[in-house]
Amino acid sequence: MYDIRLEGVTKKFGDFTAVDNINFTIPKSSVTVLLGPSGCGKTTLMRMIAGLESPTNGKIFFGEHEVTNVPTRRRNIGMVFQYPVIYRGTSVRKNLELPLLSEKLSKAEIDKRVDEVAEILDLKDVLKRFVEELDNGTRQKIAVAREVARQPRIILFDEPITNIDLTSKLELKRSMKELFGRLQQTIVYVTHDQTEAMTLADQIALMQDGVITQSDSPKEIYDKPNSQFAGWFLGNPGMNFVPPEFIKVSGTKITSPLFSQTIDLGSKAASADTFGVRAEGISVSGTEEKGAVQARVTRKALGAGGQYLLDLAVGSLLIKARVSHSVGRSVQNSVWTTIASENITFFDKSGTAL
Amino acid sequence: MAETTFKAKRKPGPIRFATLGAWGISLLFFLPVAWIISTAFKPKESIVVSPPVFFFKPTFNNITEALSFDNTLDYFIHSIVYSFGSVTIAILVSYLAAYSFSRYKPAGTDFLMFLLLSTRFVPAAAFVVPYFQLFNLLKLKDSYIGLIAFYTMFSIPFSVWILKGFLDGISQRYDETGLVYGASRWHIMFKVILPQVKPGLVASFVFNILFVWNEFLFNFQLGGAKTFGVPVGLFTGSTKGGAIDWAYVASIGTLYVLPLVVVIYAFQKYLLVGLTFGTVRGEV
């Protein structure tokens, strides 16, 4: 299998720079998710890897081979699009067989591959059915299965489950997770949905305005965002950000009405401007504890799956906390919050983590 | 507030008046065709009589007689060659053009599409003299090449418009999947996309055949003895004896509609889709 190496890859559409000088390596035999809001350039980047767009500048390598100017059809890749591409008027089996037929494989080999992917993606029962009779989720599975059966070295997924209804979405996500576990291929997966990215990725490359701002494992990127953008974009709700007026820096020490303790940030303290804390990084208690900060519950809490999202006010500062107990579910004047220092991330004026 | 009254729906009779009226109007429009076809099979003496004869012993004499005239069969052959020839070429060229407009969107696509259709804004008669001169100059008069070129040119704009509508309805992801699978552009165009726009191909084929098959003016001006089609033949042949030979007109007319009836009947199911497609768009 190949890794994918991008060297200074840039794509401009007229005056608009969609992808801006990206240097990045997508490791082989793993799942890399390109994550970002719409318009961040993630799909353009993927289309350049596929050869469907050519970069304005820069080079793309598959392993040791430069493919920048190699046409799509010689790149030996597979690609699944946002809308399922299926061939109407034929059976599911025929849909899976079509690209294999043109590769001139033996009948036995074709049958073997088709049965194999049908098994993994749970399509065995519909193999004989016509694609028109199936729902969108199943159609997308067919498109995925077809790529997998071809056994290319690299498979690209362009928001494959964005347009699928909710029930099929979960099922499809599960099948994909299972599938990715079995595949040896290098997989690039584009999405704007952070939960999808968290579920499926071995590595997330977070994109904003045409550049990759951070790349790491889902856990690392969630726990240690390197920018306010990363903190805000990942997580539901995104990170709480506390504005500068709630921070007091004296020397290397930082205090805040939200802290029960003083935090020593060393030489970085001088540039600390804001800090962020995730909703689940705030613990809430109904009784006063030593060093806890008093807060008000401003709204009745929203519950989801045994967890509650609390709207809290510390003085004039509004923050959100996620708890799994019942304290603070209704509007009240006094709960006590504590934030462990490892849950706090400081950012400088430009929004970069310290 | 006035009380709402719920009026029982009028019971439908066996045949409603409206239905009857609709049938009446339809039949009225169909009368000339019915007259032509029935006249073709009437004995000569009962063709122009008053009151008209509705029941008669059908005969093939008129048709065999009409076919035995010198040029009749030639007219049919000419018509078939230039109609089917030009429309087939036009569809092929239009498909390539429409594919390009739909997929590559060359600079000025909208303007070019408009320009293409604008050739049909002016009444055809306005072009007759310039074309006559041009064909004389290029020595294309009375040649298949000339006529086919002319009718091809005339059929292209409409076909490009119809086909572009159809192609825009086929997601480009099909093309891209083809590329990923290692197919060439030609393969994608003709093996992947073309089957999906079949209704569009049929619709533009049928509409253009209807036009070219019935075209009289340009065939008359630009053609000649070697290329006159049936409409011209009908016009010149019907007055051979000094007066209009209705038996001849009816026989040739009847034979003339047959190929179109067959073509349209065969493609009916595509035609309906062809007429309605393009109203609802979106990625498929």
Word description of this protein:
The complex is a heterodimer of chains A (354) and B (284). Chain A is an alpha+beta fold and 354 residues long. Chain A folds into 2 domains: 230 residues, P-loop containing nucleotide triphosphate hydrolases (Rossmann fold, 3-Layer(aba) Sandwich), CATH 3.40.50; 108 residues, Beta Barrel (OB fold (Dihydrolipoamide Acetyltransferase, E2P)), CATH 2.40.50.140. Chain A is built from 8 helices and 22 strands. In chain A, the strands form 5 sheets. Chain A has a 6-stranded mixed sheet with strand order 6-7-8-3-9-10, with helices on both faces. In chain A, strands 16, 17, 18, 19, 20 and 21 form a 6-stranded antiparallel sheet that branches. The model of chain A has no long low-confidence stretch (mean pLDDT 89). Chain B contains 12 helices and no strands. Chain B has one domain: MetI-like fold. Chain B starts with 16 loop residues before the first helix and ends in an 8-residue tail after the last helix. Chain B is mainly α and 284 residues long. Chain B is 67% helix and 0% strand. In chain B, α9 packs antiparallel against α12. The chains are: A alpha+beta (354), B mainly alpha (284). Chains A and B meet through β6 of A and α7 of B.
